[in-house]
Write a structure and sequence with these properties.
By secondary structure, this protein is mainly alpha-helical. The chain contains nine helices and no strands.
């Protein structure tokens, strides 16, 4: 009887220690941390990005080295769940903001942040194409790594957890972006960004949870 219980316990996909998953999820937000560091301290974004990404890679390497193979596999699967859910979530985020601006005739131009990112990362003047492309890549990196972080920590939760995560990201954006971009139509900006982050979170939370349930089903376990 004891052996059966042990075997059943091993067969279940461990969700991992919550604090460990939280640490690894935070590490995946390295690009966002670099941006916050830039806002707070004015240090070069490219340098901060190098530092935070290096710390993130080191954290993952150190933690995974000490983990059993099964736990590593589940964490990797969680990260992939978030990443795969993040692709449509980022698309929905950008499309929803664009659609809201078009429908309401808002004067807000949130996509100008892409050009500013590119300029900060050394791609030249923000009016140039290079700055736009580099900035878009940074924006996409943020959206996907935030999604992977969500997957590691909260893939087993549902749509409301996703929306809550989106609103956490919204809080950081509203805290820093208006002053950085010199925005005057603050109410319009907040309306557009809240809508976009709710959509992002809803898509992310729903799709990540669906993948988690499929994973449990594949392993023959109950949710």
């Amino acid at each position: 009887m004891l052996d059966v219980a042990r075997n059943d316990k091993v067969s279940r996909p461990s969700r991992g220690a919550p604090l460990i998953r939280l640490l690894l999820g935070a590490a995946l937000c390295a690009s966002g941390a670099a941006l916050v560091g830039y806002f707070l301290f004015g240090l070069p974004l490219a340098v901060l990005l190098l530092i935070t990404v290096s710390l993130a890679v080191g954290t993952w390497a150190l933690v995974l080295r000490r983990m059993p193979a099964q736990s590593r596999a589940v964490l990797g699967r969680r990260a992939r769940m978030g990443l795969l859910a993040g692709i449509p979530a980022v698309a929905a985020y950008d499309l929803s903001r664009w659609a809201l601006i078009e429908l309401t005739g808002s004067s807000v131009k949130p996509f100008e942040a892409w050009r500013a990112f590119g300029e900060l990362l050394g791609a030249g003047d923000r009016a140039g194409t290079a700055a736009l492309l580099v900035g878009f890549c940074f924006h996409l990196t943020n959206g996907l790594t935030f999604a992977a972080a969500y997957g590691v920590v909260l893939a087993h939760k549902g749509i409301f957890a996703g929306i809550a995560w989106g609103l956490v990201l919204e809080g950081f954006m509203v805290s820093f972006y208006p002053g950085w971009l010199g925005l005057k139509a603050l109410d319009e900006f907040v309306s557009v960004t809240i809508f976009g982050h709710v959509v992002y979170g809803a898509v992310l939370g729903s799709l990540a949870n669906r993948q988690w349930k499929r994973f449990l089903s594949e392993r023959g376990t109950a949710t």
